[in-house]
Amino acid sequence: MQYVSLQGLDRMQKYWLITGSVGPRPVALVTTLGADGLCNAAPFSAFNYMGEDPPLFVIAIDRYGEESHRPGEAKDTLRNILERREFVVNMVDEPILEQAVHCATDYPAQVSEAEANGLALAPCTQVAVPRIAQAPIAWEARLFKVLDLSAQRSIVFGEILAMHFRDDLLDRERLRVDVERFAPVGRLGGPNYTRSTDRLRVRVPTFLQAAGKPRE
Ligand SMILES: Cc1cc2nc3c(=O)[nH]c(=O)nc-3n(C[C@H](O)[C@H](O)[C@H](O)COP(=O)(O)O)c2cc1C
């Protein structure tokens, strides 16, 4: 094993070590509405679910870095979420991966990334923000809380209000997602992604008190 202490490393050195270690990460293509009514779309992989009651998830949003076209500025996604307090998380699978990643292009604020990348918008029910029509699953969400961790980074807690599923992905009677059919992509370090179609099934064995060992 090779040992690395994080003390003394700069931000980007830590970023590469951490994001290279945590993977595959789900990708949320977040849609929001700007004050001008323009729909904004951007991918976020510092994203995960946090609970079901209340149904919460988190997305960590950085300010634009020094290397960017808007150093130090808040990302449009964060600005729009704070202004409107509602947004949509669109899950990303292989058919829309490239389009979703290209939504991170440094477009000027007045360009709709979804439109520029051939992603169609569809209306939501409980929020004014549109969802991405081609996304296999989309969550309508409202802002629950924002934690400003540092001048650089905000953690957005979203509360899920409603979900949209591609027809074949939801077993409506059991209210379960068909995990055989849902194939989200995962992000690894940098521009590397993985499919989720090669599956492993591992069940947690029940511990049998009488036998003093887990069931085989
Ligand atoms: C797959 C992928 C995942 C990303 N994840 C994050 C993230 O978790 N947090 C973040 O601040 N930026 C992330 N980014 C960068 C943003 O998507 C990018 O800065 C985007 O242009 C922000 O757009 P906006 O200003 O419209 O919000 C990611 C980019 C890609 C391609």
Outline of this structure?
The chain has 216 residues and is of the alpha+beta class.
Explain what the structure shows.
A seven-stranded antiparallel sheet has the order 3-2-6-9-10-5-4, with helices on one face. It has one domain (11-214): Roll (Pnp Oxidase, Chain A), CATH 2.30.110.10. It is built from four helices and 16 strands. A hairpin with a 4-residue loop joins β15 and β16. With 216 residues, it is α+β, with helices and mostly antiparallel strands. The model has no long low-confidence stretch (mean pLDDT 95). The structure holds flavin mononucleotide. Flavin mononucleotide binds next to β3, β5 and α2.
Please describe the structure with a list of short key phrases separated by commas or semicolons.
single chain; 216 residues; alpha+beta; Pnp Oxidase, Chain A; 7-stranded antiparallel beta sheet; 3-stranded antiparallel beta sheet; 35% strand; globular; binds flavin mononucleotide
Topology:
Blueprint: H1 11-21, E1 25-26, E2 28-33, E3 39-44, E4 47-52, E5 55-62, H2 76-84, E6 86-91, H3 94-102, H4 113-116, E7 121-122, E8 131-132, E9 137-148, E10 153-165, E11 170-171, E12 176-177, E13 186-187, E14 193-194, E15 207-208, E16 213-214
Flavin mononucleotide (FMN) binds near residues 40, 44 and 62.
